[in-house]
């Protein structure tokens, strides 16, 4: 199973309905305000909507990682099958609830009643703090009103979110939809009165909450760098247990380590918390980030410089200890692509291109500035075609990317690494992050000769007419192909003529 996959359901993939049709239906069903908010939070321009996995996977996985939280999906069976399959592939070890529907229950409103019955049955306060109900494409398009679910049942919070493929561009941003909804709920609870203490207790120092799913060593590394400033790292949002949202909101400052958490940032800002951009990666990134932490807390320049002097030499030493010599292109949809590129460049690599499926935001501005000052082309909302054409055109020594990009690179005999499985699964921050990428990157680049030998060995296999398993030679029918092409050309001409009328 690859680390990403295309749209797994039929509604947008198989042509039952286009995303435009679904969006029009959703607007007709009263979801216009929601879709407009998504458009503002997750802008898709100037490029087309990037290709990625079903966005609901992002919010599903975020919910499945939380303690004492149940997740329920409402959508087409094939979408739910794909989503649960992939969540278990990634080790969910938790049941995913499903409320099925058919045309009748969808049209008559019975589906909503079924969802309400399901959450009532599930809501056991002995076992659960919250239940997350997610409308996938079809229920969102049909306007199934999750907002009418009870706010809580016997103390179990009910969070309803719509995560349609035609409204949320990437699975990364779907994590934000859920994180934002949970923070919003928690913020109202805090405003209403005292809330319980998180199981891990409360720091006696002012905290910096961290936005974005990171490698587990990274929050610890960040905490170590904050300690000399008299600060602590707050919880990572999305949190792993409900009460952590209270401590997250109780932070003094929130750091948008991953820059696409628009809805979550809105909640922190509503709670009066300033937001920090970028992250402590590499020498420059760490020094700049510590400076902005110091500014946010009003810490003296001398104390900040002391912390910088404590950590940046160790980072520089780690970067110097294992240099990277070669050209690397980076593309992905996790939101940390720019940070990875910074680290690679400080390690000596030439990185001409970084493509990310996520949108531009104020929280990645320092990274864009730093990268562009070094001649890097940074492409937000990069399409698969953008990423592929860069690999084909530049022929780097290493391509870091999503599954189809890696596949293309390997076909070209270029060593490649999956961003999600191999790069995101490493620390990036501070001294621990500085030394972590070089080993895997250098090992991959060292495989160039092997890639070339493999390419030679498999030359011509698996392409075009030779794709698949054949006992004899493929039965080629160029005449059929030519006749079919004629039909396509004729249809294209007719469509064009119709557009001009
Ligand atoms: S929910 Fe929408 S985007 Fe996701 S698999 Fe189903 S049709 Fe595709």
Describe the structure.
The chain has 22 helices and 14 strands. Mean pLDDT is 90; it is low at 1-15. It starts with 9 loop residues before the first helix and ends with a helix. It has helices at 10-13, 19-41, 56-64, 77-89, 103-108, 110-122, 137-141, 171-192, 217-226, 244-249, 262-270, 282-297, 301-321, 337-346, 365-373, 384-394, 403-411, 419-423, 430-434, 436-445, 448-458, 478-500, and strands at residues 69-74, 97-98, 130-135, 152-153, 156-162, 207-211, 232-237, 253-255, 275-276, 327-332, 350-356, 377-380, 398-401, 416-418. The protein is α/β, with parallel strands linked by helices and 501 residues long. The protein is globular, with a radius of gyration of 24 Å. Helix 14 (337-346) links the parallel strand 10 (327-332) and strand 11 (350-356). The strands form three sheets. A five-stranded mixed β-sheet has the order 2-1-3-5-4, with helices on both faces. Helix 3 (56-64) packs across helix 8 and helix 16 (384-394) packs parallel to helix 17. The protein binds iron/sulfur cluster. Residues 7-9, 11-12, 54, 56, 75-76, 79, 82, 136-137, 165 line the site of iron/sulfur cluster (SF4).
Properties at a glance:
about 500 residues, oxidoreductase, five-stranded mixed β-sheet, 22 helices, disordered N terminus, BchY, membrane, binds iron/sulfur cluster, globular, bacteriochlorophyll biosynthesis, alpha/beta
Shape: globular
Structural class designation? alpha/beta
Q: What topology, given as strand order, has the largest sheet?
A: 2-1-3-5-4
State the end-to-end distance.
47 Å
Q: Please tell me the overall pLDDT.
A: 90
- State which percent range the strand residues make up: 5-15%
Stretches with pLDDT under 50, minimum 5 residues: 1-15
Taking Cα atoms only, what radius of gyration do you get, to the nearest Å? Answer: 24 Å
Total number of beta strands: 14
Distinct small molecules bound, one entry per kind: iron/sulfur cluster
Helix content: 40-55%
Query: Could you describe the largest sheet, including whether it forms a barrel?
Result: 5 strands, mixed
How many helix segments? 22
């Amino acid at each position: 199973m690859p680390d990403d996959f295309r749209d797994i359901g039929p509604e947008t993939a198989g042509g039952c309905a286009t995303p435009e049709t679904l969006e029009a239906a959703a607007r007709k069903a009263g979801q216009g305000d929601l879709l407009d908010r998504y458009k503002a939070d997750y802008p898709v321009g100037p490029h087309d909507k990037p290709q990625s996995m079903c966005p609901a996977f992002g919010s599903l996985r975020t919910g499945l990682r939380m303690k004492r939280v149940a997740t329920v999906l409402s959508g087409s069976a094939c979408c739910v099958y794909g989503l649960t399959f992939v969540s278990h592939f990634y080790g969910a070890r938790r049941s995913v609830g499903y409320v099925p529907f058919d045309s009748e229950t969808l049209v008559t409103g019975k589906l909503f009643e079924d969802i309400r019955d399901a959450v009532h049955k599930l809501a056991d306060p002995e076992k659960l703090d919250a239940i997350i109900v997610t409308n996938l494409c079809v229920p969102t398009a049909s306007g199934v009103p999750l907002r009418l679910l009870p706010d809580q049942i016997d103390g179990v919070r009910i969070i309803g979110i719509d995560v349609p493929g035609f409204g949320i561009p990437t699975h990364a941003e779907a994590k934000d939809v859920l994180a934002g909804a949970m923070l919003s709920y928690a913020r109202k609870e805090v405003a209403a009165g005292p809330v319980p203490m998180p199981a891990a207790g409360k720091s006696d120092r002012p905290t910096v909450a961290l936005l974005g799913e990171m490698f587990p060593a990274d929050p610890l590394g960040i905490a170590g760098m904050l300690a000399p400033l008299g600060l602590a790292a707050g919880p990572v949002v999305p949190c792993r247990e409900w009460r952590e949202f209270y401590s997250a909101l109780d932070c003094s400052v929130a750091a948008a380590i991953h820059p696409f958490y628009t809805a979550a940032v809105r909640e922190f800002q509503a709670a009066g918390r300033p937001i920090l951009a970028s992250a402590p990666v590499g020498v420059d990134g760490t020094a700049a980030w510590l400076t902005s932490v110091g500014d946010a807390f009003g810490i003296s320049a001398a104390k900040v410089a002391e912390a910088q002097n404590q950590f940046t030499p160790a980072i520089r030493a780690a970067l110097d200890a294992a240099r990277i010599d070669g050209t690397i292109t980076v593309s992905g949809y996790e939101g940390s692509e720019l940070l990875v590129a910074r680290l690679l460049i400080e390690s000596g690599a030439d990185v001409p291109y970084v493509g990310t499926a996520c949108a531009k935001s104020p929280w990645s501005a320092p990274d864009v500035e730093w990268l562009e000052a070094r001649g890097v082309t940074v492409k937000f909302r990069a399409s698969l075609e953008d990423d592929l054409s860069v690999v084909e055109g530049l022929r780097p020594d290493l391509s870091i990317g999503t599954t189809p990009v890696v596949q293309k690179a390997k076909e070209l005999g270029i060593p490649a690494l999956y961003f999600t499985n191999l790069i995101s699964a490493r620390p990036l921050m501070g001294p621990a992050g500085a030394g972590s990428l070089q080993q895997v990157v250098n090992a991959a680049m060292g495989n160039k000769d092997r890639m070339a030998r493999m390419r030679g060995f498999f030359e011509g296999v698996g392409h075009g007419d030779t794709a698949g398993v054949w006992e004899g030679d493929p039965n080629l029918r160029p005449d059929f192909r030519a006749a079919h092409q004629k039909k396509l050309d004729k249809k294209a001409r007719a469509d064009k003529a119709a557009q001009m009328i």
